[in-house]
Amino acid sequence: MLQRIFRLTEVAVLCVLLLLAMVPDARAQAANLRGKVVVDGSSTVFPITEAAAHAFKQDFPNVDVVVGVSGTGGGFKRFVKGEIDISDASRPIKKEELEAAQQNQVRFIELPVGFDGLSVVVNHDNNWTDTLTVEQLRELFSEDGKIRKWSDINPAWPNETIKLYSPGTDSGTFDYFREAVMGERNFRTDLSTSEDDNVLVTGINGDKFSLGYFGAAYYYENREKVKAVPIVNPASGDAVLPEPENVLSNRYAPLSRPLFIYVSMNALRRPEVRKFVEFYVNRCGEFSEKVGYVALPQEIVAMARDFLSSRRTGTVWLMPDGAKRHGALAEVYKPENLVDPLKQ
Q1: Are residue 140 and residue 210 in the same domain, yes or no?
Q2: Beta strand pairing status for 108-117 and 256-264?
Q3: How far apart are CA 50 and CA 56, in angstroms?
Q4: Residues 233 and 295 in one domain
Q5: 124 shares a domain with 244
Q6: E strands present in 170-282
Q7: Which of 249, 275, 296 finishes a domain?
Q8: Model confidence over 89-147: pLDDT tens digits?
Q9: Buried-state track 309-341, b at ≥16 Cβ within 10 A, e below 16
Q10: Are residues 312 and 233 in the same domain?
């Protein structure tokens, strides 16, 4: 009996020693990983990627992850030319962007990293706007719209012109608002625009009669400066705020949306890029929640891991003929929906 105890003790000690020996080796491997990962694109996705880059730097101190903010469209312009490794995107890739990638032989993997609720916000001193509908937003932002003053929405509201703030045309948030709200209508030309959502927050905070929109993370981060307006869900008729539980359940329709990173296959050949993307996807829920977005369901994260590990290239959001594919993320994000013009 004693001999057996001694043998078990010896085995346990050996296991501990082996683990201790592996720790310096793991640290050495992390220290040996060097290089640079270049990311650009969406200001909405930027906080998630920045959180991932910061955490990655702690584990891999000799890898620099540089994250730019030129808007979703600006990021894709660089990405499809092969100028950057990863493109942050607050909307799926467009047909013309996919065609440009095809022309430049740029293959990629499409990876969701979180959910966002595009937030319509007003100044904190606005004590009259209790709800807005999608139709009212369309009339307000349209070039030929009928709403220009608060009193045009409700005669009891102030007879004051509404100053509008919007992300710029290179922003995926602008594109998503256009698709979800504007339809075929054209935007007004007198919008105050910026690719930097912090500029929009500052503008709305300084103007009592203003209104604007941007990603939920900037609303959550600036609740003391601006306040969100409940938007009427066209299907249910309920006025809903862009709180995380409403975004995930899609009660906050039609302004809930998934967020993405697009990863170049050429870049994935480099160990520093491969390690960063694996690190990012595995912890995307943590990073999304840390900066105020909504974490993906575990089944979507598992599918993203599969796309990455199996190198499943292309987009699920376009049909083979280039038409947009519509539907909930869980319904659309499947291997059988992938379209990759460069796949042999």
Answers
A1: yes
A2: antiparallel
A3: 10
A4: no
A5: yes
A6: 192-194, 210-214, 226-228, 231-232, 239-240, 256-264
A7: 249
A8: 999 999 999 999 999 999 999 999 999 999 999 999 999 999 999 999 999 999 999 99
A9: eeebbbbbbbeeeeeeeeeebeeebeeebbbbe
A10: no
pLDDT for residue 322: 93
Q: Which residue segment(s) compose the domain that 236 sits in?
A: 119-249
Nearest to 293 by CA among 112, 130, 129, 172: 112
- Which of 109, 117, 38 is CA-nearest to residue 70? 38
Q: How far is CA 250 from the centre of its chain?
A: 16
- Mean pLDDT, range 304-319, rounded to an integer: 97
- Predicted pLDDT at 27: 60
Residue 23, pLDDT above cutoff 60: no
What's the CATH code of the domain at 188? 3.40.190.10
Into how many domains does the chain fold? 2
- This prediction has a pTM of 0.79
What the block records as the tokens of 275 is 């390690």
Q: Examine the domain organization and report whether 227 and 139 are in the same domain.
A: yes
Dihedral angle sign, alpha carbons of residues 110, 114, 117, 118: negative
Question: Residue 150 — very low, low, confident or very high, per pLDDT cuts 50/70/90?
Answer: very high
Tell me the per-residue pLDDT of 46-66, one tens digit each, with 9 for 90 and over: 999 999 999 999 999 999 999
Q: How far is the CA of 60 from the CAs of 155, 221, 273, in angstroms?
A: 59, 28, 12
Q: What is the DSSP string of 103-142?
A: HTT--EEEEEEEEEEPEEEEETT--S---B-HHHHHHHHB
Tokens (6 digits) for 165: 């703030």
Our CA dihedral for 52, 54, 59, 64, rounded to 10 degrees, sits at 100
- Pairing status of strand 119-123 against strand 226-228: antiparallel
